[in-house]
Amino acid sequence: MFGIGKKKDRELSAAVEELARADTVAFGGVGIAGTLLPVTEAYRRVEAALADDPEGVREQLERLLVEGTPAGRVYAATLLERLDPTAGRAAWTALRGDPAEFGTFTGCVMGRATLGGYASERLAGA
Q1: Could you tell me if 14 and 60 are in contact, meaning their C-beta atoms sit under 8 angstroms apart?
Q2: How far apart are the C-alpha atoms of 91 and 94, rounded to whole Å?
């Protein structure tokens, strides 16, 4: 169909931009109602696009690793790790010394983390 590919490209770009502005990392529902944050929905859209266009998504993730907020870089490294575990590990290693902070949300529990601390935990768990 005419324009379908362009619509998907626009949706992917919008999702990546949402991740680039993120101030909180939440991979699932939050609060008592388990509401999905817009950034979590954006993460899921980018994650779904990995199967359709791995190289195109990879380019956007690599840009997000450089230009995104600390939370955006967490999302980028997480997605990159799913796409290419070696590249993901390299991304986490590069982020390990970063003192920037961001919010976290797991269920009903809000918290704060540093990018370096979060990256170190990801590397230790790998």
Answers
A1: no
A2: 5
94, with CB counted inside 10 A (0-12, 13-18, 19+), is middle
Tokens 């590069």 identify what position? 94
Average pLDDT for 79-104: 97
What pLDDT score does 8 carry? Answer: 82
Question: Would you say 102 and 69 are in contact if contact means Cβ atoms under 8 Å apart?
Answer: yes
| Side-by-side strand order, sheet with 101-106 | 24-25, 101-106, 109-114
**What is the spatial distance between Cα 47 and Cα 25, in angstroms, rounded to a whole number?**
15
Q: From its phi and psi, is residue 3 left (phi > 0), alpha (psi between -120 and 50) or beta?
A: left
Q: Are 8 and 57 in contact (CB under 8 A)?
A: no
pLDDT digits (tens, 9 = 90+) for 94-117: 999 999 999 999 998 999 999 999
Per-residue DSSP letter, 99 = -
